Amino acid sequence: MKKKMIALVLTAAAVVTMASAAFAASPVGLVIDGVRQNPSVAPIVENGTTLVPLRLISETLGAEVSWNQSAGQATIQTAAYTVVFTVDSKSYTVNGQGKTLLSAPKLINGSTMVPIRAFAEAIGATVNYDASSNTATVDYFTAMSGTLKIDGSTTLQPIAQAAADKLTGMNKGLSVTVAGGGSGAGIKDADAGTVNIGMSSRELTADEKKTLNVYAVANDGIAIIVHPDNPVKNLTKEQAAKIFLGETKNWKDVGGEDAPIMVMTRETGSGTRSTLEEMILSKESVVETATPHTSSTLIKQAVAKDKNAVGFDSIGFVDGTVKAVSLDGKEASAATVIDGTYGMGRQLFCCTKGAATGVSAMFIDYLRSKDCQDNIVAKEGYVKLG
Amino acid sequence: MDNTSKNIAIRIKNVTCSYGGKPAVRNASLDVPQNSICAFIGPSGCGKTTLLRSVNRLNDLTEGFALSGSIEINGENIYGNDAASHVEALRRNIGMIFQQPNPLPTGILKNMYMPIKAHYTGEKKYFYEKAVEKLKTAGLYDEIEHRLDRTALSLSGGQQQRLCIARALMLEPKIMLFDEPCSALDPIATYKIEDMLLELKKERTMIIVTHNMEQARRVSDYTAFFYQGEIVEAGRTNDVFFNPKTELLDQYIRGRFS
Amino acid sequence: MRLKKYIRDIPKALIYLLSAISVAVIASVFLFIFHKAYPVLRESGVSLFVTGGFDRQIQEAFYSANATPMLEFGFLGLISGTLLTSGIALLFAAIIGIGASTAICEYAPRRVSAALISVVRLLASMPSVVFGLIGIITVVPAVEKLFVTTDRQIEYLDFFQMSGRNLLSASVVLTFMIVPTVVSLSVDAIRAVPHSHRETGYAFGMSKAGVIGKIVLPVARPGIAAGLVLGAGRGIGEAIAVSMVCGGIGFLPNASLGFVNFLAPTLPLAAAIVNKSEALGSFAVESALFACGAVLLIIGAVLSLGAKAVEKKMRRMAGYAD
User: What contacts A67, CB < 8 A, 6 or more positions away?
Assistant: First the structure.
């Protein structure tokens, strides 16, 4: 009798252990916004909590991650929320407020794993777990609804428009309008509240930062453009400065033909122009006689039409109709901007009145998400955020 | 018509006028002696005005107008030459006064200068003196000498019509045509103008279309009676009115129809 | 008894009320513009009207902090741009417009005349941006081809960058815009001349040209003048079409350049507001642009008073008592 009992208990224990081991070992499927994910480290379930790799989740949902090695803390920032997890600790904060987890974040094979439900809900995403298929689904960019009005920098406009098209395609209840008008207009309109998000291709002034929050969404370089037939291929910063300040007036002085240099510029208030003036002209203004144009496209067209013209435009706008000269020997490209060797790299921003919330915040998160950065920013010829 | 004792200024011979095929004057013939007033009388729409306007070829301005026959002025058929210069010269020598006074909406003197400035150049002083002379002839000068620069539209109807006559006189026309000149005016203004006509005829040949038989009797030397486009009877005014030869004219004089 | 009196007073009161509201709305717009423009107006004073340098000043203003705004401006380049483009356009529009309307009313066969008048009325109501497009596509390239050579560009590079977008192109585009308005009103004025006046002219032996020149046009003069004033107003206030072809720089004409002044870029007041609106975030820029608006209002008022004075003189010449 006793022997039989022990055998039964042992078997039961073995079964339970094996079962739980099996449970613990079976990978949880992860679907984010309808796309099945394949992370290098598979999500696991612990104490009923699903843990997913932090890198994956933040890249996909457009959050910025900073890692404090000594404290073992990961700070994850979306446009609207800041979540701080500590490895092996059940306490975490959301926008400063303390909360408690059922299961602590872990370090597995060098990847930080965080509780998906806690994180997703903290930033406003919806999480569902389907036991039959053993899959966790997160809906963030597919749960957007409402109206968004965006305007501002014509440099950023194509990116925002492509993002808007993608998001409205995924969300029936969402409508987004994207307009141009220049960085100046975007900042002003965001401040006035006539748009939800203002786009800017320049840094905001101290005055502007008093009321507006700024979010970097892409990198960009400003290329100096000339007509494709212009033999000049490179300019030093000094040469470029002299040209735009009106001191050098003939192409032959910079290695070109004997012809007048017709300077094209953007109108006052253009973020692209401000950046050029800051980075190359030591904040002096482009020469007074330069012909002003009101958008990125128009200045490019002006240069494309005139053999003797020189202008400047975002790298993303450079196409076959104009030629970008290299600056101090560095070609104007995404690579040189990212590695910092190109002399006129800059960031592109979205700004909101106060901290971004709701759908505005989600739109900004999308701009920073892997999907947008790979498929829109890089594809359009701009430079991804670092 | 008795045409032996005087020269004939206007000879109308077998004239038929039509507008777009519809005849308004049929086979009219008439001699108008020099320096006399001839009245055209008859019911409305009987061709009086049409024939009048044919004398200075003003009907040429209407599309579809056609005239057959001839009108001779001083021996020359005015419908023999269609050149613009010829027609313009013809009209220059004929003065016309319309039913509604129509001075231009500008100053009195400017109105007076208009016809002469259109054709001649000259010193302002000369034009001014001539204008004053004609205004006096029209009996208008005394009434308005203190406001010659004022707009012509500030004059009364009678004064405006006299102004139009004075204006027409600026070109010294030898022939003058009047299309019911007093029908829009009051009796006093009418008398003033009739007096003027009697004075003017001493040196000019005049035709006056009128509905007012009394006027015709007062003013004209000769009268032609029109009925449905034809000149039914014509002759010295006294003869026509006291001894009408046709039944129609008799009825008309009696006022049986108008 | 009392009720009836009320009923009679209600429409009257209503009309007074509505009139008061209209006046209030217009007055408040004026006040708002001058209020917003006041900082620049006060700081610049008279030099606003007699000195230039707008392009440089607006850049400085944009970068000035809101707490220490840069408010000294000189609009002379903008004012001369406005007056020159509108003036030239008005001159050409008067010649072309009066000629065209005379031809339409006096010489064209009836059917052609009616068709032409419909076309003209349509053109007169076309949105101005369409004229801007026409300017970009046809006028600017034509001017460039005809007048802008590389040699000329080099020669005048110290003064300005020569291109097809210049004072000449802007004036031509404005002419296109104003002509339909002038023709439309002149046609009405000519048609309104009573036929009796024409008959009088013919009866005096005048030729057709004489009747038109010495009788019809002088009598139609007030109506034609109204068309010109309206056209001038449209030209002065035109922003979009002009901004597309003017060159965008408030270059002040220089006597030594002679004809070449027409090939220089210009920036009329209304176009300046359009072009610089991207910089509106800055307080100084905002005040400066409203100042442009205020100056436009002043020019409009002067034009209006001038037109009235000319009308008065004409009436006196025609003999009306004052």
Answer: A73, A74, A75, A112
- Residues constituting chain A: 386
Token pair belonging to B122:
């000259």
Round to whole Å and give the CA distance between B47 and B26. 9
Confirm if A233 and A326 have CB atoms less than 8 A apart.
Answer: yes
> How close A56 comes to chain C (CA, Å)?
39
Shortest CB distance from A208 goes to which of C248, C277, C281?
C281
Say whether A30 sits in a helix, a strand or coil: strand
Put simply, whether C199 touches B (Cβ < 8 Å) is yes
Tokens describing residue C67: 């707490």
Q: Would you give the distance in Å from CA B42 to the centre of its chain?
A: 16
The Cα–Cα gap between A129 and A136 comes to 4
pLDDT bin (cut points 50, 70, 90) of residue C255 is confident
CB atoms within 10 A of CB A274: 24
Q: Domain B1-92+207-258 adopts which CATH fold?
A: Rossmann fold (3.40.50)
Cβ-nearest to B92 among C197, C204, C318:
C204
Q: By CA distance, what is C56's nearest residue in A? A: A288
Does residue C124 contact residue C231 with C-beta atoms inside 8 Å?
A: no
State yes or no: pLDDT of B3 exceeds 60.
Answer: no
Q: Measured between alpha carbons, how far is residue A67 from residues A54, A110, A292 in Å?
A: 11, 13, 46
Distance set, CA B246 to CA A327, B30, B214, C28 (Å): 114, 17, 19, 82
Q: What are the phi and psi torsion angles at C47 (to 5°)? A: -60, -15
% pLDDT > 70, chain B: 97
Q: Which two tokens stand for residue A368?
A: 């920073």
Least Cα distance to A322 among A339, A305, A334 occurs for A305
Q: How confident is the model at residue A18 (pLDDT cuts 50, 70, 90)?
A: low
> CB of B136 within 8 Å of any CB in chain C?
no
Q: Is beta strand B37-41 parallel, antiparallel or unpaired with respect to B205-209? A: parallel
Coil, strand or helix: which one is A138? Answer: strand
User: In chain C, positions 216-255, which contact chain B (CB-CB < 8 Å)?
Assistant: 218-219
Which residues on adjacent β-strands are paired with residue A72? none
Distance linking the first and last C-alpha atoms of chain B:
24
DSSP states along B14-62: EEEEEETTEEEEEEEEEEEETT-EEEEE-STTSSHHHHHHHHTTGGGGS
pTM of the model: 0.80
Mean pLDDT (whole number) for C154-179 = 93
Q: Which chains touch B (3 or more CB pairs under 8 A)?
A: C
A229 close to C (CB below 8 A) = no
From residue A319, how far is each of A223, A304, A377, C290, C298 by CA, in Å? Answer: 11, 10, 15, 38, 46
Find the mean pLDDT for residues C243-250. Answer: 93
The reply to whether C207 touches chain B by the CB within 8 Å rule is yes
C136 exposure class (CB count in 10 Å sphere: 0-12, 13-18, 19+):
middle
ipTM confidence score: 0.91
pLDDT at position A37 is 84
Cβ of C56 within 8 Å of Cβ of A288? The answer is: yes
Distance from CA of residue B3 to its chain's centroid?
21
- Is C279–A184 a contact, with Cβ atoms under 8 angstroms apart? yes
CB contact under 8 A, C279 and A289: no
DSSP-assigned letters across all residues of C92-145:
HHHHHHHHHHHIIIIIS-HHHHHHHHHHHHHHHTS-HHHHHHHIIIIIHHHHHH
Domains plus CATH for chain A?
24-139 (3.30.457.10), 146-215+347-377 (3.40.190.10), 221-345 (3.40.190.10)
Instruction: Decide if A284 contacts A277 (C-beta within 8 A).
Output: yes
Taking one residue from A and the other from C, the number of pairs with CB-CB distance under 8 angstroms is 85
- The answer as to CATH 1.10.3720.10 being correct for domain C77-277 is yes
